[in-house]
Amino acid sequence: MEEKMSWVVVDAVDHKGLPADRAKTGGWVPAALILGIEICERLSTMGIAVNLVTYLDGTMHLPSATSANIVTDFMGTSFLLCLLGGFLADSFLGRYKTIAIFALIQTLGTGMLAISTKLPQLRPPPCGPHQTAACQQATGFQMGILYLSLYFIALGTGGLKSSVSGFGTDQFDANDPKEKAQMGFFFSRFFFFVSIGTLMAVTVLVYIQDEVGRSWAYGICSVSMFSAILIFLSGTKRYRYKQSMGSPIVHILQVLASSFKKRNVELPPSVGFLYEDSPESSRIQHTDQFRCLDRAAVVVEGDFPGGITTSEPPNPWRLCSVTRVEEVKMVARLLPIWATTILFWTTYAQMITFSVEQASTMERTIGSFMIPAGSLTVFFVAAILITLAVYDRVVIPLRKKLEGKPGFTNLQLMASGLVLSTLGMAAAALTERKRLTVSRAVGPTTSTLPISVFYLIPQFFLVGSGEGLIYTGQLDFFITQSPKGMKTMSTGLFLTTLSLGFFASSFIVSVVKRITGSGSQGWLADNINYGRLDLFFGLLAVMSLVNFVAYLICAAWFKPQVNLQPVPEMDNNTGKGSKEKEVV
Length: 584
Fold this sequence. Notes:
This protein is mainly alpha-helical. It folds into three domains: 1-127 and 135-244, MFS general substrate transporter like domains (Growth Hormone, Chain: A, Up-down Bundle), CATH 1.20.1250.20; 248-328 and 565-577, no CATH class; 329-564, MFS general substrate transporter like domains (Growth Hormone, Chain: A). Helices cover 62% and strands 4% of the residues. The protein is built from 16 helices and eight strands. The chain has helices at residues 2-6, 28-58, 64-118, 140-161, 164-169, 177-211, 214-234, 248-261, 322-340, 342-351, 354-360, 378-403, 410-442, 457-480, 487-516, 533-557; strands spanning 8-13, 19-21, 362-363, 365-366, 369-370, 449-452, 570-571, 576-577.
C-alpha cells in the first residue's frame, strides 16, 4: 500500500479528476509541450511590437509620437491583462483551460492582423518619402480594424503569460527531491525559450515583414500558434492539474473590507485576542506595520453567522485570521519597491519605439544586405543573454570566492538594472544629438542619413543588460517575498510594472508633445529629423536618476518577512486569546 501511495502526487489530479499517478503524468515531456505555447507567444507579441512603429509611421502615415503611443499602449495592455488571466485561472477556468482559450484568441488576433495588412482597402494610399505633409492618414475604420486585431493579440498574451509558467511547474512535485531539481531546471530553460522566441521575432520575423510582406509574417505567427495549440492539447492525458485555491485578490479585498468596516473598533492590548484559525505550521508571525489592518482580525458581534459558540466558520468579509491579515501586509510592503521599478520599463519602451525610428533613418547596409530597423533589437536580446551568462558564470563564483556570498540580492540586482537603464538613456541622448547634427548637415529630408546604425548599440546594450538584471531580481523578489498562497498574484504584480511602464511612456510622450509642440513641431516632431529627441531622452535619464534615489530609500525601508512562525491561537468558543505561545 505504501509503494502505491508513493506513486501518487498528493496535491494534483489527472484529466479524469483522480489522484495523479507519478509514473503516468507530469515530468519533462508534458512540460516541453507547454513550452511550445510560450515560444509562439513570444514570436507573435515581440515580432509585432518591435516593428509595428515603422508600419504605423510608413504605411498608416501616423505621426511618430502617435505611433509610439500605439505600440506602448498595446504592450501595456498585454501585460495588464495578465491580472485578468490570472484571476480567471485561479477562480474559474484553471490553468489548462485558460491556456487553451487564450491561445485560440491570440491565433485569431494574428490571423486578423495578417488580413488587415494584406487588403489594400484597410490601408491608406501609399505616398513617396518626400510627401509627408500630403500623405493621407489611415481612416477611423482602417485604424479600428487594426486596433481590434492588436487587442485580440493583447488579450491572448495576457491570458497565456499568467498561466504558462505556472502550469509548467505544476508538472513537477516540489515534495519530491528529484522532481524539485527538475523544476529548477525547467525555470532556467523556460527563460531560455522565452529568449529564443524573442530572438526569432526580432531577426527572422522582422526580416520577413520588411522583405517578404507583413501579411506573410503575421500569417506565420497565426499558423505557428495554432500548431502549438494542437501540440499542447495532445498532452491532455499526461498533464497534472492543481486544484484552485481561490483568487488571492478576493482574499485581499476581504481583509481591506473587514478592516474598513471595523475602522472605529479599538485594537486589543495583546495579539492573543486576535482571531486565528490557520494551521499552526502555516501561520505567519504578527508584525506591527500597517496596524490598521489588524482590525480585520478583531472579533465583534455578527462576525459568526450562527453565533460565536457555534462551529460555523466566520463570514470572511467581516472577520479574517491573523495569517490572512499578515499576507496582505506582506503584499503592502512590496508596493514601494513595485512603484520604483515601473520607470525602468518606460525606458525599455523607447527601445522598441523611438530607437527603431532612429534606426530607420540611419545607414543600415552591410555589403548588399540591409538590416531591418526592427532587427536592431537583436543587440538588446544579446545583451540580456550575455549579462545573465556573465553573472551566472563569473560574478557569482567570484563573489562566493572573495566574500563567501552566493551572488547579489534581488534588491541589488534591481538597483543595478535601474543604474544601467539611466546610463542607457544618457547614451541614447548623446547618440541622438550626433544623429541630428548629421541630419542638419545633409538636410532633414534625406531618407538615409550618412551615419551608421551601429551608433545605437550602446543604448540597446545598456538597457538590455539592465533588463536581464532587473527582470531576474523582480521575479525573485516578488515570488520569495510574497505569501505562499499568492505566488500567482505576485507574478501578476510583477508583470504590472511592465504594463504601467508602457502606459507611463504613452503619458510622458503625450505631455511632452503637448508642452513642447505648441507653435512648432517640438521635441517629438512627426518626422524625428525635425524634433529634439535628444532632449526627450535626456529628460528620461534625469527622471530615471531621481527614481533610482527613491528606489534606494524604499529598499532601505523594506524589511523582509520573517519565516512562518506560530502565533497565539484564539479560542473560538470564547472569542478570547489563549495563552500566548513562545515564538521559535
